[in-house]
Design a protein that fits this description.
This protein is an all-alpha fold. It has one domain. Helix content is 70%, strand content 0%. It has nine helices and no strands. The longest helix has 27 residues. The chain is globular. The protein starts with a helix and ends in an 8-residue tail after the last helix. It is found in: Endoplasmic reticulum membrane.
């Protein structure tokens, strides 16, 4: 564990807490893409298949349980909660997210490190996480008017991945034989998808105006 990894984990955790705060305190999921949340739930399920069979550390297990539990809680709230689901903008959140799942699965079957079920699913989760934010970004472009908590949630998600890239760079220069091309490539692609959002986020912060993305 190094400072960049810890900062990345805490930023990722903060993004989840911000979204939970928005949903359960304000009782609103306006501006939040259910499609992206469902993709993240699938990412965590396929990545943490070893949660009950492989113990790494207490910290690692707790973080896995938090991300699994929070992702399903968010999806359930947006689909089933009698108040929260009313604010879900189903007409705008129309990205066909299932079209992302199959290509990622095929790519995982073709490009992986070991041909085992857990390894292929772990690789699939990396590919899917790289593009899971797309429905959310498309929704923000369509709605244009982005509230502060939703903007902070997306920003923290992007910052988490950027910090992980710094973690990989640090480990590359401090650990022998640390090379993970699949992880690195997926992480870089994911970070690049946030580039446009980051630009407008900082512009809105600098000019003290409400965040809006171009259509």
């Amino acid at each position: 564990m190094n400072l960049f990894r810890l900062a990345g984990d805490m930023t990722h955790l903060a993004s989840v807490l911000v979204l939970l705060l928005k949903i359960h305190t304000i009782k609103s999921c306006a501006g939040v893409s259910l499609k992206t949340q469902e993709l993240y739930a699938l990412v965590f399920v396929t990545r943490y298949l070893d949660i009950f069979t492989s113990y790494i550390s207490f910290y690692n297990t707790v973080m896995k349980l938090i991300f699994l539990g929070s992702s399903f809680s968010i999806v359930w709230s947006m689909r089933q909660h009698k108040l929260i689901r009313k604010s879900y903008d189903k007409d705008q959140d129309t990205f066909r997210h299932f079209f992302l799942v199959l290509p990622c699965l095929i790519l995982a079957l073709l490009i992986h490190e070991k041909i085992t079920f857990k390894e292929v699913m772990w690789t699939f989760s990396l590919y899917l996480e790289a593009v899971a934010i797309l429905p959310q970004l498309v929704l923000l472009q369509r709605t244009r008017n982005i509230d502060n908590l939703t903007g902070q949630y997306v920003f923290l998600l992007g910052a988490y991945r950027a910090l992980y890239i710094l973690n990989w760079i640090y480990r590359y220069f401090t650990e022998e034989h640390y090379v993970q091309w699949i992880t690195w490539t997926s992480g870089i692609v994911q970070t690049l998808l946030y580039a446009d959002f980051f630009y407008y986020y900082f512009q809105s912060w600098k000019n003290n105006v409400k965040l809006q993305l171009p259509a």
